[in-house]
DNA sequence: CTTGGGTCCTGTGCGC
DNA sequence: TGCGCACAGGACCCAA
């Protein structure tokens, strides 16, 4: 999936066109994504004005003037496409995806009063959406157990150590638990652990305080740099404007099996191995 | 309680 | 060229 940097990048792409915009047309193409869409979903969106476009963990939040928030999780392959008619006419072929109306993976098409079209695609349909009373968001099951935002002030070594305490599970696996810290996924966990020189296989409960401090710093740096680069562009992911993020070129270990470890002075090689059914990338030389 | 494994769904890229 | 299989950013659910 899009992890935190990709979701934040999508948020930044949607905000200029959705904030303050009234939704005048909503075309819902199917009754469900990963889960059933809300009852009368299109009707409840139609006519609403978007007051703010936010993000919590990997969730996009569009607060509506109806008192509800339209919540989207992109899953693995969910994408938004923004089309401004005047821009598209000047830049044909800018979008790598087929025209929304022709694509079988187009599930939702919105149009704002200003004539901007926002299309949601999701080939694998692991994504999901909800319409939740804004006041009830913090108590909703999707949000109630989420851990701190990794780029926010609540994420620090003390809190991380408390979450790790007593856990024998590998630190890599624990970091993917959204209740420990919210927003990391497979790529950025591998990147952060490499930067912090911690083995993905180390038991979470055996991470020392200095290592936890390095880890907090590494998570912040990796995510911050990725956000600044517009996220990583993966096979099924593009920014809301159809352009590419650049961070995939900055990956130190992810997708770099058998390449030399990029850490200066380290003679190791990047290895790939499964953990919990997913691929981990790391250097066995400098990560302990 | 934690932990591991299967599950949802489709597309792509590889070896044969 | 076709076929089967492994694998892909997530996270829920259940059994042990």
| Main sheet: strand order | 1-6-7-5
Radius of gyration: 20 Å
Tell me the helix content. Answer: 25-40%
Mean pLDDT: 91
Largest sheet: 4 strands, antiparallel
- The helix/strand class is alpha+beta
Q: DSSP strand (E) fraction?
A: 15-25%
Let me know the number of strands. Answer: 10
What kind of oligomer do you see?
Answer: single chain
SSE string, helix = H, strand = E? Answer: HEHEEEEHEEEHHHHHEE
Write down the overall geometry: globular
Termini gap: 27 Å
Poorly predicted spans: 92-96
Number of helices: 8
If you had to describe this structure to a student in words, what would you say it looks like?
- The protein contains eight helices and ten strands.
- Mean pLDDT is 91; it is low at 92-96.
- A hairpin with a 4-residue loop joins strand 6 (106-112) and strand 7 (117-122).
- The strands form three sheets. The protein has a four-stranded antiparallel β-sheet with strand order 1-6-7-5.
- The radius of gyration is 20 Å and the shape is globular.
- By secondary structure, it is an alpha+beta fold.
- It has helices at residues 4-18, 41-45, 85-90, 141-144, 157-164, 171-175, 186-196, 209-228; strands at 23-28, 50-56, 59-64, 68-73, 78-83, 106-112, 117-122, 128-133, 270-275, 278-283.
- The longest helix has 20 residues, at 209-228.
- The chain binds a DNA duplex (16 and 16 nucleotides) through helix 7.
């Amino acid at each position: 999936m899009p992890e935190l940097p990709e979701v934040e990048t999508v948020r930044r792409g949607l905000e200029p066109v959705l904030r303050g915009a009234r939704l005048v047309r909503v075309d819902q193409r199917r009754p469900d994504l990963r889960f059933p869409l809300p009852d009368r979903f299109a009707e409840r969106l139609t006519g609403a004005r978007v007051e703010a476009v936010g993000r919590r963990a990997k969730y996009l939040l569009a607060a509506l003037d109806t008192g509800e928030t339209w919540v989207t999780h992109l899953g693995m392959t969910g994408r938004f496409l923004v089309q401004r008619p005047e821009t598209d006419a000047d830049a044909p072929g800018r979008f790598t995806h087929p025209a929304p109306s022709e694509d079988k993976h187009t599930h939702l098409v919105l149009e704002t009063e200003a004539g901007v079209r926002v299309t949601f695609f999701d080939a694998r349909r692991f994504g999901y959406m909800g319409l939740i009373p804004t006041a009830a968001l913090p108590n909703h099951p999707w949000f109630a157990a989420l851990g701190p935002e990794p780029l926010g002030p609540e994420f620090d070594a003390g809190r991380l150590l408390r979450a790790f305490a007593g856990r024998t599970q590998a630190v890599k696996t624990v970091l993917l638990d959204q209740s420990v810290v919210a927003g990391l996924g497979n790529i950025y966990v591998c990147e952060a652990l490499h930067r912090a020189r911690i083995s993905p296989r180390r038991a979470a409960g055996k991470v020392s305080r200095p290592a936890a401090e390095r880890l907090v710093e590494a998570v912040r740096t990796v995510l911050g740099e990725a956000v600044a680069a517009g996220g990583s562009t993966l096979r099924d992911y593009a920014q809301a404007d159809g352009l590419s993020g650049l961070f995939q070129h900055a990956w130190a270990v992810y997708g770099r099996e058998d390449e030399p470890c990029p850490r200066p002075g380290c003679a190791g090689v990047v290895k790939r191995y499964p953990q919990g059914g997913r691929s981990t990338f790391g250097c066995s030389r400098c990560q302990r």
